[in-house]
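Wait, can you check?
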Amino acid sequence: MGTQQVNGVRTFTWKEVTESVPKKSNAHAIASHALLHPDSPAPPVYTVISDKVYDLSGDFFSWHPGGGVAFSQLGKDSTDAFDVFHPVETREMLASFYVGDLAADQIRKDPTGVNGGFAEDVARLRAEIESKGWYASSKVWYARCIAQTLAICATAVFILARFPDSMVGVLASAFLVALFWQQCGWLAHDFAHHQVFQNRYWNNFVGYFLGNVCQGFSVAWWKHKHCTHHSVPNVHSGDPDINTMPFLAWSEHALEGFADLDNGALAKFFVTYQPLFYFPLLCVARANWALSSILWNVKDVSVHGFVFPTNSLVELSTLAAHWAAYIGSAFYFLTPGYALVWLLCSQAFCGVLLAAVFSVNHNGMPVYTSAEAADINFYHLAIATGRDVHTSTFNDWFTGGLNMQIEHHMFPVVPRHNLPKIQSRVKALCAKHEIPYHETTLANGLYEVVARLATVSKAARKGNKAQ
C-alpha cells in the first residue's frame, strides 16, 4: 500500500506504527546506529501522541533526558505516558519529530470505564491537582525528612564508635545504617522524580547526594530502571522489576523462557523452591543492586553514553565517595572480624528493608504480556498492577509514601505528602468506573507476594513433571 496523505499530511495505520519497532533491538542499538553511521539513514521508529505520529529514530535516545525509557513506548499510543513524565512545555519540542497523523479510521476511542469515560475523568482529576497546587512541594517538610534521615546515620556512627567491642552494638549500628539507606532511597526517589524543586538541576544535585553518596545507588542507573518500570508496570519482558530470572518468576509467562536461559537448570531449581528462597535472596539484593549500579556506569563510559545521557564521571566519583566512607568507617572503628560482620549485616538488613516495601507495590499483582498491555489504558494499567498499603504514620514513613503506590504511579511528580489528598479521589474514580482498587496491610501484602511465588512455583513443578 502506498503512502497516504490528507491535506498534504501523511497518514499512518496502526500496522505501520507497530511494525516500525525492530523485534530484536533496543534504544542502545538505535542510538548507536545513528552515532556510528551518520551517513546511513536509520529506519524510522514510531510512537503516537494525541493521534499524531512521531519518529524517534536517529540519535534521539542518546540525548533524551529519559534515555532509553521511551523505547518502551515505541509502536504504542504513548499520550498518557508522555504527559505523566513531561512538563507541558515539552510538547513544543515534539514538532521536530512529527511525521504525520493517524488515519481517521485508525483513531481509537478509549473504552475504559463506564461508558468509556475513564480517560476524561482522569484528565479532570489532573486538572484539579494542578488547580489546587498539589504538584507543589513543601520544602520545609522535605528538609525535616532529610534531617531526620541524617540523624539515623549519625546515631549509627555514634553506636559504632561508642561500642566497637559489642556484638549487640555492631548489629544495632548495622541495622540503623540499613534503615538510613532505605530512607535515603525513598528521598532520592522523590528528588529523582522531580517532585521537590521546579528546577531539575537542584533535584538532580540533591538526588546525587542522597542516592549516590549516601545510599550508594547511581541516580542515572536508577532512573533508567525505575522510569522504565513506571512506563510498563508488570508487563512481561518490559518491566525490569519483574525481570528476576533465573532466581524468581512472577508469572507463568516467565516459565516459558526456561529454554532461552543459559542456566535453565539453575532457574528451574530456584523457581521450584522460590517461596523458600525469597527472603534469603532479599539479603543479597542490596549488594546486587549496588554492584549493578557501578557496572551500569562503567558500561555507560565504554559506549560513550549511548544508553542514557549521564555524566558517568560524576556518577562514579560520588559512588566512590560512598564506598570509601562506608568501608573506611568499618575498619576505622572496628576490628577486622567485627568490621566484616557490620558490613555483611548492613547489606543484608537493607536488602530486606528495601524489598519488603517495593515488592509489595506490584509483585503478586497481575502480570500482562506486551500484547495485552497494549489494549489497556496507561492509568488503568497503573491501578490494575498496583497495591496500596493502608496509610498510617508508621506506614507512610517506613515506605516513604510508596504505600500509596497506585496514586504515585498515576501522578509520579506529585510530592508524597500530597498523595493522601488524591487517594480518596482515585478510589472514587475506580468505584465509578468499576475498576478494582487493591489496598491491604503491609503484612498481608507480603503474604500475597509469597503466595504468588508459591502459585508460580507449583506451575513450574507441574511443567517439570510433564517433561
The first strand starts at residue 4 and ends at 6.
